[in-house]
Design a protein that fits this description.
Blueprint (H helix, E strand, L loop, with lengths): L2 H12 L4 H12 L9 H15 L3 H15 L3 H10 L2 E4 L11 E8 L5 E9 L4 H15 L5 E4 L3 H10 L4 E4 L1 H5 L2 H4 L2 H4 L2 H11 L6 H14 L6 H8 L22 H9 L10 H28 L10 H8 L9
Parallel strand pairs: 1-4, 4-5
Antiparallel strand pairs: 1-2, 2-3
Helix pairs in contact: 1-2, 2-3, 6-7, 11-12
Length: 334
């Protein structure tokens, strides 16, 4: 095997492609088996040898690689992204999928193209107050300023750690995580009632009403659907100040990012749910590929915004002026 064969096996695994399939793809690209100098067994054996070489040294290898990267090629892109778009951030832990049962915690912001951008990541051994406190302190040390707004799920440890470290930030719970529980909290009849779903969604996601209007309509909904005394709805109402957009109308950029589902999407995007051959070295390979792909898409968005002209809908051609200020995906359609 030559260097390019080794790279084919390693890179393919970052895209969830095993050694057998990687060999079939390489054979096809070479023009057939007669033009392929190595066998499927060679690919499988190399992957096996890499796993054996990494063994239980993957944590040390990860630390060494990141230390060298910090000293030689520091990643300033994440710092710049946070400086520009980090007023509102979201972070969310993942399930324990790697062999060390560690949890990945990506920190996300939303850029000027409404796309997710990773501004930091952490690996922790468990979702404890101590671990999240350490992570948040490291985050501030890296970026040198706190966010204005933080969105998380209902993790108890996060809730305790955030005010201890992000003393200047407002903390809001994720509406998406809460609302996806609704079907399991109401009766079958309500689940099948399309009007109920419309009423509750139009109420809790409404960014145009204030607190008083929300509370009036909430009580009307409770009475209309006979939910008075329901434990779950009572608990949700008790924490309404932490999750309902109506209570955040005056917070700058609070409507920019509504959910931490972006974090879960990012975890899947980085392939952290891939379980086979999943050591920390492979995790870093997957992570690097995902970040490279994300930054490429950002560059494409920038090019499209700068090189395309908007459709003129208004008689004053206001779109032309807007295109000089706003990106394509934010306020106008090209």
């Amino acid at each position: 095997m030559k260097y390019m064969d080794f790279k084919t096996v390693l890179n393919s695994s970052s895209y969830k492609v095993g050694a057998r399939r990687a060999h079939r793809i390489q054979t096809s690209l070479n023009g057939g088996f007669e033009h392929t100098r190595v066998s499927k067994i060679d690919f499988k054996n190399f992957k096996r040898d890499v796993v054996a070489c990494v063994g239980n040294k993957d944590a040390k290898m990860l630390i060494n690689k990141l230390s060298n990267r910090r000293d030689i090629v520091p990643d300033e892109v994440a710092r710049i992204s946070y400086k520009e778009f980090g007023d509102v951030i979201s972070f969310d832990g993942t399930s324990r999928t790697n062999k060390h049962a560690m949890i990945s915690v990506p920190f996300l912001a939303v850029d000027n193209h409404k796309a997710s951008v990773v501004v930091g990541s952490a690996l922790i051994s468990g979702e404890t107050i101590e671990n999240f406190t350490w992570v948040l302190k490291a985050f501030i040390k890296c970026h040198e300023k706190q966010p204005i707004f933080v969105i998380t799920d209902q993790c108890f440890a996060m809730k305790q750690a955030i005010p201890m470290v992000f003393t200047e930030a407002k903390h809001r719970l994720c509406m998406w995580h809460i609302m996806k529980k609704v079907p399991s909290k109401v009766s079958v009849a309500l689940n099948q009632d399309p009007n109920f779903n419309k009423v509750i969604n139009k109420l809790v996601w409404n960014i145009h009403i204030g607190p008083a209007e929300f509370e009036r309509r909430w009580h009307e909904m409770i009475e209309q659907y006979n939910l008075r005394g329901d434990t779950w709805f009572t608990d949700m109402y008790a924490i309404r100040h932490s999750l309902i957009p109506a209570f955040y109308k005056d917070t700058p950029m609070s409507g920019l990012m509504k959910t931490t589902s972006r974090s879960e999407t990012s975890n899947s995007y980085i392939n952290i749910y891939e379980s086979y051959w999943f050591d920390l070295v492979q995790f870093l390979n997957n992570y690097d590929v995902a970040i490279e792909k994300q930054r490429y898409r950002q560059s494409v968005h920038e090019i499209v915004t700068r090189t395309t002209n908007p459709k003129f809908v208004t008689p004053l051609r206001l779109e032309s002026y807007a295109s000089r200020i706003y990106s394509r995906n934010v306020f106008f359609d090209i």
